[in-house]
Amino acid sequence: VIDIRKLYAQTGDFTYDPGFTSTASCRSALTYIDGDEGVLLHRGYAIGELAEQSSFMEVAYLLLRGELPTADELKTFSTTITRHTMVHEQLAAFFRGFRRDAHPMAIMCGVVGALSAFYHDSTDIHDPVQRTIASHRLIAKIPTIAAMAYKYSVGQPFLYPDNSLSYTGNFLRMTFGVPAEPYEVNPAVEKAMDRIFILHADHEQNASTSTVRLAGSSGANPFACIAAGIACLWGPAHGGANEAALNMLREIGTPERIPEYIARAKDKNDPFRLMGFGHRVYKNYDPRATVMQKTVREVFDALKVNDPLFETALRLEEIALNDEYFVEKKLFPNVDFYSGVILSAIGFPTSMFTVLFALARTVGWVAQWNEMITDPDQKIGRPRQLYTGPTQRPYVPVGQR
Ligand code: ACO
């Protein structure tokens, strides 16, 4: 009888690293994070500068192509993306197969996964031209699909894209516009939304990006890989945290109730965690949260609203950052902490928050997928395991057990 555990001990050729806390699964030139210093760079550019000065289309180009575009390159790229914003008409019928009360992320998983059935002329991963077309299709169609998921949930008709608008303006119109009335994109909201997309564009080997790479490593087509990423992103420990964070703030309600929730977050017998707090890599303030906090004020000013939940969030942050537990564990607000307050002010229901994250992250997923496919070291992802089950034993017929 072979003692499998003994065998492992003898071979000793792998590392047991649950959650991959110290294993680099790939090499990448896209994104750099210094979690101790709270630094995030895309191709060498600081996230704060990109969020302040560039546009989501520029960042998409940067991540995909490696350099910031010239004015002409940006125009050509934006036009190319714009030309792919329509989705196959048959896809609308696909939406109608879902219940109206389905979570939009459930719809996203299904519809994006179905794209390979509609665009199988761009699924040959060995053909660079097809890879480029698939990349453009995914980036261009995701806002259309996200807006359709929203429209379907509220029972309104789908709106075709209006390609005279910007990427983000077009998305806002497809989401909030109605056919009977003209829709004017609010420039401040458009800018804030574009910035939110920039903040979510890529974040190196997080769970959903690793999922996209792992799915892609087997040679699966890009549409299927992005659908896998969307499924992973949905979890409350990852992209679902923005929805969970706002729900938490609503539950807390007023600043007076914060200490009760802080106590719960510290209680090891209570599964409750402060949503939008803590990060696997950042052991300092998430630089995206800094931009997000500033953007809340801009959106409130533009829309002339003032959600008291923002005050609750600010107070919660202040209390947590002065609490020994959070200080010792280096738990700071992450990108999801303030995003819900902004998205809610713009008019999105909480169920759409993770959809918006998926929309923006599609750029990163697509760039990471392309990088992986063209990496000469690329292999099928196949982690090992530390077997903890029984050693080999004889089969006992059912009548004798
Ligand atoms: N509230 C209270 N305690 C926390 C929190 C939190 N939000 N986050 C971590 N901790 C505690 C843990 O209980 C643990 O304590 P212990 O050492 O006494 O057991 C310690 O801090 C370390 O936490 P881990 O879960 O081991 O850290 P990990 O790196 O695996 O998890 C994660 C990171 C998932 C983000 C975690 O901080 C968390 O659950 N946060 C809330 C959800 C959230 O905001 N997710 C969004 C992440 S950003 C993104 O995906 C875009």
From TrEMBL:
GO MF term set: citrate synthase activity
Bilayer-spanning residue ranges: 337-360
SUPFAM superfamilies: Citrate synthase
Active site: H279, D336
Signal sequence range: none
Chain residue ranges for the region called Disordered: 380-401
Entry keyword set: Membrane, Transferase, Transmembrane, Transmembrane helix, Tricarboxylic acid cycle
Gene Ontology terms: biological process: tricarboxylic acid cycle
Catalytic activities: oxaloacetate + acetyl-CoA + H2O = citrate + CoA + H(+)
Metabolic or biological pathway, per its Swiss-Prot or TrEMBL entry: Carbohydrate metabolism; tricarboxylic acid cycle; isocitrate from oxaloacetate: step 1/2
Gene Ontology CC: one annotated term: cytoplasm
UniProt-listed InterPro entries: Citrate_synth-like_lrg_a-sub, Citrate_synth-like_sm_a-sub, Citrate_synthase, Citrate_synthase_AS, Citrate_synthase_bac-typ, Citrate_synthase_sf, Citrate_synthase_typ-I
Keyword Transmembrane helix: yes
Pfam families: Citrate_synt
Similarity annotation: Belongs to the citrate synthase family.
NCBIfam families: cit_synth_I (TIGR01798), PRK05614.1 (NF004126)
Protein name: Citrate synthase
Organism: Sphingomonas metalli
